[in-house]
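hey so i finally got around to running the thing on that chain from the lab meeting. sorry it took forever, my laptop kept dying and i had to restart like 3 times. anyway pasting the input first so we r on the same page abt which one it is
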Amino acid sequence: MVLDATATEDKPTNIAGERLRSIIERIERLEEERKALASDIKDIYSEAKSAGFDVKVIRQLIRIRKQEPAEVEEQETLLDVYRRAIGM
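ok and heres what got predicted. didnt touch it at all, straight out
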């Protein structure tokens, strides 16, 4: 991509430059939103902890809820088999 030699950092002089600036600005906005969401999630985990909940278990439950039911069942079955194999 070639920009006009008279282009400044603030004003691209062609469509490709404008499109690139738009894409970059959208990504920057989304990065800021992601940062804000991460902060909100952290606050919720702190709230859960102060309410007496075990945050590690909550994280595990969230991870399990993202999985397919058949996958969860298979993992639980294997865990049970392995526990019995080692006498737990």
